[in-house]
Amino acid sequence: MKLKKELGLFDVFAVSTGAMFSSGFFLLPGLASQYTGPSVILAYLVAGVLILPAMFSIAEISTALPRSGGAYFFLDRSLGPMMGTIGGIGTYAALLLKTAFALVGIGAYASIFFDIPIKETAVVFAVVFTLLNILGAKKTSGIQKVFVIVLLLVLTAFIVDGVYHIFWAEQSAVTFQKRELVPFFTGGAEGFIFTIGFVFVSYLGLTQIASVAEEIKNPDRNIPLGMALSLLVTALIYGLGVFIMVAVIPNDALAIDLAPAATAVQQLFTWLPPRTGLYIIVLAALFAFASTGNAGMLSTSRFPLAMGRDKLFSEKFTSISRFGTPVPAILLTAGLIVLFIVVLSEEGIVKLASTFQLFIFVAINFSVIVFRNSKIASYDPGFNSPLYPWMQIFGILTSLMLISFMGWVPISFTIFIILLAYLWYVFFVRSKVKREGAIFHWFALLGKHQHDDLEGEFLTILREKGMRQDDPFNQTIVRAKIHEVDQQKKFKDIVKLVADASSEEINTDKKLIQQEFFKSNPFDAALMIPEVMLLNAQIPNIDHPVLHIVLSKNGTTQTIEINNKKHKNTIKVFFFLINDAEQTKQQLRMLTGIWDIAERDYFVQDILALENKGKIIEYLLHSKQYITFKLTKDSAAAEFINKKLIDVKLPPDVLVVFIERGIHSFAPHGKTVLHENDILTIIGETSSINNLYDRYVLK
C-alpha cells in the first residue's frame, strides 16, 4: 500500500523550517559563542552556505526518486545496500537523538514557569506527537503549520524590537557598544571552523523533508522551492537573532548562557508589561521544540518503513494503516525516542548528530555524481543541481574539513555507528538482498556488472510521478494515427506498416524506423501488459513525438523475453511511439503515460469495440480533457469561421491541437484561418472543456 500524497508547498516549508528552529536558536548560540566569541554570528551564516550542496543534491534526488527513507533510499539506490544500511541506520539514530533532544527542550523551557518534571513532560509530548502521526501526515503537517506560523511571528517581533533598540531607540535598556564585537574571533581560525561544524546541526532539519518525499504533491516543484524558502528564512532569522543576542548580552555571560534568547528578551519589549517579553519568548521556544519534535517524528518514522520495504528491517514496518500512515514504523520510532529521553543525558548530542550528518552529506553529494554517470534513462529529476559537479565536490570537501575539526569523540561515535551498521548488513541483510546500486551502472561503462532491476524500479517511480506540464502527451494522443488490421499479420509486417506510414510524416528513412522498433529495449519487459505491446523508437531531429496505434482483433503472436525466459503473447493493441533521440526522458514519461491508459480495466475489449478514431482518441484522453466540434453556420461555433486562430476567444488553459479539413488533418498555428466545416479538436483543463462543451456542442 502506498502513502498518500497530501503535502503541498507550505507543508514542505513548515516541516523543513519547523525541524530547524529549536536548539539552534534557543540553546546553541550561547554554547557556540564560547568557542569563537562574537563571530558566532558569522558561523551561523557560513553554516547556512555550506549546507547548500547537500540541499541541492537532496532536492535533485528527491525529485527523481520521491520515496520515503530520505538518505537511506538515496544511498541504497546509488551506492548499494551496504551503504544504504550504514546511511539508514546511522541517520535514523542521529534523527532519533535530535528529536528526543527537542522533546526534552519542551520540558526544560516549560519548567521555567511551571513546577513540572522535564523528562516526564518530554515523554508526554512524545505520546501526543505519536498519535498525531498515526492519524495522518496531513493532520501532522497541519499542526506543524500552526507551530511554524506562531514561531515565525514571535521571532520576527523579537528581531524587529531588537534591531530597533540597538540602532534607533533613544531611551533603551540595551547598551550596545563596538566593544561587544571586539575581538571578533576569540578562538582563532580553529575555533571558528569548529563552531561552524558545531552549529551545523541547526540546519539539519532542512534535509529531513526528503524522508517524506513520497507524500509530497508535485515534488518537482514543491521540494526544491520549499527547501530553498525554508533555508532563506531560517538563515535570515538565525543571523539577525544571534546578532541581537551578541549585542545585548556581554561576551562572558553569553558563553555560559543556556537560554540566551530568554536572557536577551528581558532587555527588550520594554513597551510591554514586565516579564511579558519573557513569557512570549518562552512560548516561542515551546512552539519551536514542539515543531522540531513533531517534524522529527514525522520524518524519522519513514526510515523503518523504507528499510522494511527493502528487507533491511522486518517487513512488518511496511504496513500502512487505514489513515495512510506507517503505524508500526511510527510506534518503533516513538518507543526509541522515549527510551533515549529516559536513559540519555543531553550533553554532547549536538556534536554527535552533526558529525554523522556531515558524513552522510559527503555520501549524498557523491550519490548525485553516481546517478548522473550511471546513464540510467529513467533517472529523471525535476530539479537539477546547479554547477554540477563542482557543487558536489565543494560539498564533499567542506564536509570532510568540518568533520576533522569536530574532535575525536564525535568521530569515534561516527565510526562506531558505521561499524555497527556494517555488521547488521553482513549478518542480517546481505543474504536477503540481491540488488545493487546505480554505481554498478557506472561500472558497466567500463564493462563491468550492472543491476538491471534498478532501471525497472526507477521506471515505476517515473510512472507514479506522471507527466510534466510541458510534456506534449495529450497533443501526441490527439495526433495519433489509428490502424485497424482485420487479418492476422506477422509482427514484422505490422512494424513495416507503421514505419511506412510514419516515414513521410517525420521525413526519415523507413528502414531506420524499423530498425529502431526492432531494437531490444531494457524497458520492454517492464512495459508489457497482456495483449498490449508498447514499442518506442528514437529518431534524430524530429519536431514532435509521433504515435501510431495498431488494433488487431484477431491478434498477432509475438515471442517476448522476460528475465531471460521466452514467452508467447497474443498482441491485439500495439502502441508505436517515435520521439526525438535527444528527448529520452520525455519519451519514458510518455511511455509510462500510455502504460497507465493500457492498464485500465477491460482496456483491450473497450478500445477494440470503439467505432472510429474520434471515439478512440476520446477514450484514450478521458472525455473530461477533450472536445471535438464542427464549425457550421447554424451552430454557436459559427463565430470562429474565417477568423485566425489567434483571434478566437478561448479559455487560456485550452489548446486547439488538431484540425480536420476535408481529407486532410493538421496541427494549427496562431495564423491558421478557420474555415466552415473544419472540425476542431481541443484539449485542456476539465472545467474549461466543460464550458466549451456547454457552449458549442449542446447549443
From TrEMBL:
Residues 614-698 form the RCK C-terminal domain. One of its GO terms (biological process) is potassium ion transport. Keywords: Membrane, Transmembrane, Transmembrane helix. The keyword Translocase does not apply. One of its GO terms (cellular component) is membrane. It is found in: Membrane. The keyword DNA damage does not apply. Pfam families: AA_permease, TrkA_C. GO terms for molecular function: monoatomic cation transmembrane transporter activity. It is a multi-pass membrane protein. Coiled coil: none annotated. Its main location: membrane. The chain crosses the membrane at residues 7-28, 40-65, 86-110, 116-135, 147-169, 181-206, 227-249, 278-299, 320-343, 349-371, 387-405, 411-429. InterPro entries: AA-permease/SLC12A_dom, APC_superfamily, PTrfase/Anion_transptr, RCK_C, RCK_C_sf. PANTHER family: AMINO ACID TRANSPORTER-RELATED (PTHR42770), MEMBRANE PROTEIN (PTHR42770:SF7). This is Amino acid transporter.
